Amino acid sequence: MTGDAEIARVLRNLAKERGAERSFCPSEAARSLAADWRPLMPEVRRIAREIGLVATQRGQEVDPVSARGPLRLRLPPGD
């Protein structure tokens, strides 16, 4: 099982690689952690919220845990 710290590390790395102006799909993190990545998605979204990443849908900020459907993650402004 993939731990919270490993998920957080992957999310931070993806966010830093993209920089403040670009976003990424949370599935990119899940896919890099496990071949069977879909079960990881709720944890990836939860941890993204915990570490302060901004989640958006169609350009609007949303809660990554309660949002339904695809979303994007990015660094908060100023990071």
Automatic annotation (TrEMBL):
Superkingdom: Bacteria
Pfam hit, one: DUF3253
Protein name in UniProt: S-adenosylmethionine tRNA ribosyltransferase
Naturally occurring in which organism (per UniProt): Salipiger mucosus DSM 16094
